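User: For a benchmark we're assembling, each entry needs the component sequences followed by a predicted structure for the full assembly. Here are entry 17's components. Please fill in the structure.
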Amino acid sequence: MRARLATWGPALVIVLVAVLPVVWVLKMSLIPRRELFRSPPTVLPDDITLQHYRTVFDDPAFRQGLVNSLIIAGATTLLALVFGALAAYPLARLRFGGRTFIMTGILALAFFPSVAIIAPLFVEFRNLQLLNSYAAVIIVDTVFALPLAVWILTAFFRQLPRDLEDAARMDGATTLQTFRRVIVPIAAPGVFTAGILTFIFAWNEFLFANTFLFDESRWPVTVVIPNFATQYSIDYGGQAAAAIVVTVPLVLLVLVFQRRIVSGLTAGAVKG
Amino acid sequence: MATVELREATKRYRDGTVAVRRLSLEVRDGELMILVGPSGCGKTTALRMIAGLEEIDEGDLLIDGEVVTELTPKQRDIAMVFQSYALYPHMRVAENMGFALKLAGVAREEIDRRVLEAARVLDLEGLLHRKPGELSGGQRQRVAIGRAIVRDPRVFLMDEPLSNLDAKLRVQMRAEIAQLQRRLGTTTVYVTHDQTEAMTLGHRVAVMRDGVLQQLATPAELYEQHANLFVAGFLGSPGMNLLPGRVERGHLHLPIGDVPLPPGAGAAVGDGPVIAGIRPEHFEDAAVAGDRPGAVRIRTRLDLVESLGRERFAHFHAEGEGLDHDRLARLAGEAAGPRTIVARLDAASRLRGGEVAELTLSPGGIRLFDPETGERLAGGGGSGAGAAHAPDAGGGPMRLTA
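Assistant: Structure for entry 17:
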């Protein structure tokens, strides 16, 4: 019993700390406005209302924001996966000088504070006449998502049994045929993992979108939500509802693909 | 139909270690050749060199007398069965088996026909629509073999194909592979670390150690006429007992007693220190064996007797100094080790551990080895004739042909 508590105790604390704010926001999104401002606040809601959700969905800017987020995050994910996979495969399989240097360099890119490069990027995009376009945000998001994608995919490709590639070679496949017909299908769980993380990153991205997109009709939800503040004085309930709506697709994504990620398609490829 | 020949083939890894050193062997048309040896002996590397998965740094590979050293695996027309099976997990059995044909641009109907034919041979017809994950170990093994035979290649390569199966299935598949190979008549090179597989499957067996071929011979020759201590120690289970000895005037002095050498043999060896190898089956319980002509009697206290039903193994040890273990390990590999002498006794033997027993020893079964080089010395029972081996001065690389 004591041992079990020692195991579960810390886990419980971590889960509580992580989940509590989300639960609190969920509660905020469901209670009427007057209860929101009560002090001290209620722990359990007295009243439940869907008013805030109605407000949010009635707002055309928010609905357009969801569409924009989908476009930007979707395109970013696709690009990051294609380029990430093409980079990760040789990094995983070939032994060449400077491999470690490249891997570290790619990782270093992820540490780069985005704020630091936003001004030069702004100038660059203005020259390229990409300002106020999805392309600007998608390009930058892809660049910043690639390190993670490359690292995940490299790790994944590396643990795929080499025998499969050898078998494909014996069967007469070229390197590209092996990659496309054997490696990528088998690496699907890893590709999904990288894809989901990239999607979440791009979906949650705020800074670049807020900087490069002026036109409200192109804003992703992350940029739309803070603007509830100015539009409706500060609509905490609306913001909370919007936050929940924005989070749900991510939670669903992870839940839907969780089994695919975990189960792994490699079962049966090699012994055990 | 094809012959495969390696000529002085060497594989060096980047860090400078030599995985395979000047390996020369010729696989005859339709032959099943076994490469056997302890792990790390270079047998799998040698196989991969034939496959084209490893480059040959020096020397050549010939198929049907034609140099193919620089050709890709595809151009060599060789199929390989991998230890891990390496089935494509996302493809159904039929797709797995037909993948090579599909890549080669063979027509769909032709692929289907050949896959079905191979499936029939291997009893896989009912499984063609399953994925590898839905198959048992034995079934996966069949699919891996099926993938090789569908192509009707010039050569089959098999890399420890049975090592992932349980003992019972292994015996069964071993017999099936032997039958299949005989039926198809395809030249086959088969790698294993299992001496039983080597002895039962191989038409000829190549024993390797540290990247160097030790001996290439038929299983029977290998067991009786081993070229050196390593081969002798590697084959047989339990392994050959290795004892320090000294030859003096036609007699062999051993820690367990003195044994007369067959006439002439002593002279051939010459006086001096030797290592004597005695297989467990050359001992017998004197009470069971009675007086065999030429047999020598030895008295010893048994440490332990194990009964395996059909036979018994008696463990005992000899007084006096043993062999220099470092040197023995260098010469004999894993067979060396601080161990007792093992004798195989008839099931009728009533001997028990702790007793002082009288055993017989057939001098004809004793093999003598040079204590410095580990090479087999002539004489000491069984002549060296037929041993497919010519020792090289200095124990350097050997070129062996049977």
